[in-house]
């Protein structure tokens, strides 16, 4: 069966090369979308993943969204945990002193000894007011130890005292600082002895509420799924990928169906010579598998090449286990599309086809 399919493909090179090219384009779009979906996912949640936390406590009126959660540091007394850290987050703009260049950043505030703080690559952790540490994404843009920067509308300058690895939140680089700095970004000047505002209490290990309060406990997967825009973004991109699987099935199915109609006389002769429907169908399926496999393999290679040269500001990240699964699904879709021609092949009347 493979011999029959290969011989025909060798004879009709242009026809089968065109369909292989179509499969390559479909595979390329699927893999690129998968890379973008994974890149956007990492860009939204990487900072959260690097907390290595188990649970997050939000205001129970916040509908599981950190953007709507408003608490104060007093609520930490209501939670017991192996590791516990209050956390606040704000989107703001970073300006290096002496330049007019502005960079959008996610400012994460916590205590100076919090387990949330990433492992440093350079410098030290903040120990004083107006000290910050920055992610590798900002370090790569020329930021260095001792740089003076301004955040948002704050008049005080912040000093860069350390840096950590690649870290993103909502597709923006992150900065870690104290809770007071984030509070000033959000509210302006603070009153003396004011309980600092926070958005969440993050815990690792076993944790529980001491008493009834307005807190709601979320697991990390649940918390991540409710990050602003995260679920809608991933659902949209994955829906596009699944649609492309369906499209590849339809393209192969239609192409093979047309070929079968064109080759009714040939298949009629084969049936007269005693070759069964199953053998003929197997040769058609073999052709579909070969074309889709070539298209998928070349598509994987081109996608890997694209990932190596993609712009650094593009949220693109390859997840090879997922790409392999997508590749297998594309080949399976092409195989199913080819199998749809089985009924047409079975109904070919040798006498009518020859005449």
UniProtKB/TrEMBL annotation:
Family, similarity comment: Belongs to the ABC-4 integral membrane protein family. HrtB subfamily.
InterPro entries: ABC-4/HrtB_transporter, ABC3_permease_C
Name of the protein in its database record: Putative hemin transport system permease protein HrtB
Domain called ABC3 transporter permease C-terminal: residue spans: 239-350
Localization per Swiss-Prot or TrEMBL: Cell membrane
Role, per record: Part of the ABC transporter complex hrt involved in hemin import. Responsible for the translocation of the substrate across the membrane.
Gene Ontology CC: one annotated term: plasma membrane
Spans through the membrane: 16-37, 239-260, 280-308, 320-340
Keywords recorded for this protein, A-Z: Cell membrane, Membrane, Transmembrane, Transmembrane helix, Transport
Any matching Pfam family: FtsX
Main location: membrane
């Amino acid at each position: 069966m493979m011999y029959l399919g290969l011989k025909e493909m060798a004879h009709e090179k242009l026809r089968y090369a065109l369909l292989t090219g179509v499969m390559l384009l479909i595979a390329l779009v699927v893999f690129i979308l998968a890379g973008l979906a994974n890149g956007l996912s990492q860009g939204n949640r990487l900072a959260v993943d690097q907390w290595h936390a188990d649970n997050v406590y939000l205001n129970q009126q916040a509908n599981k969204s950190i953007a709507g959660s408003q608490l104060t540091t007093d609520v930490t007394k209501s939670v017991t945990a192996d590791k516990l850290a209050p956390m606040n987050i704000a989107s703001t703009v970073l300006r290096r002193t002496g330049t007019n260049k502005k960079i959008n950043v996610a400012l994460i505030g916590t205590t100076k000894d919090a387990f949330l703080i990433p492992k440093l690559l350079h410098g030290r952790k903040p120990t004083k007011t107006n000290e910050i540490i920055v992610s590798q994404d900002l370090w790569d843009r020329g930021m260095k130890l001792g740089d003076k920067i301004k955040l948002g509308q704050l008049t005080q300058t912040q000093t860069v005292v350390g840096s950590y690895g690649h870290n993103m939140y909502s597709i923006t680089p992150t900065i870690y600082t104290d809770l007071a700095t984030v509070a000033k970004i959000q509210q302006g000047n603070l009153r003396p002895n004011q309980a600092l505002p926070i958005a969440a209490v993050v815990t690792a290990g076993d944790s529980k509420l001491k008493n009834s309060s307005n807190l709601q406990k979320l697991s990390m997967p649940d918390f991540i799924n409710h990050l602003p825009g995260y679920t809608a973004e991933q659902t949209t991109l994955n829906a596009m990928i699944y649609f492309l699987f369906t499209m590849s099935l339809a393209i192969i199915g239609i192409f093979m169906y047309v070929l079968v109609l064109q080759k009714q006389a040939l298949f009629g002769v084969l049936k007269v010579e005693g070759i069964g429907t199953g053998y003929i169908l197997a040769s058609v399926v073999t052709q579909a598998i070969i074309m889709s496999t070539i298209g998928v393999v070349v598509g994987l290679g081109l996608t890997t090449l694209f990932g190596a040269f993609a712009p650094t500001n593009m949220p693109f990240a390859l997840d090879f286990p997922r790409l392999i699964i997508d590749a297998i699904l594309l080949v399976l879709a092409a195989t199913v599309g080819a199998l749809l021609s089985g009924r047409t092949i079975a109904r070919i009347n040798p006498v009518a086809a020859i005449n």
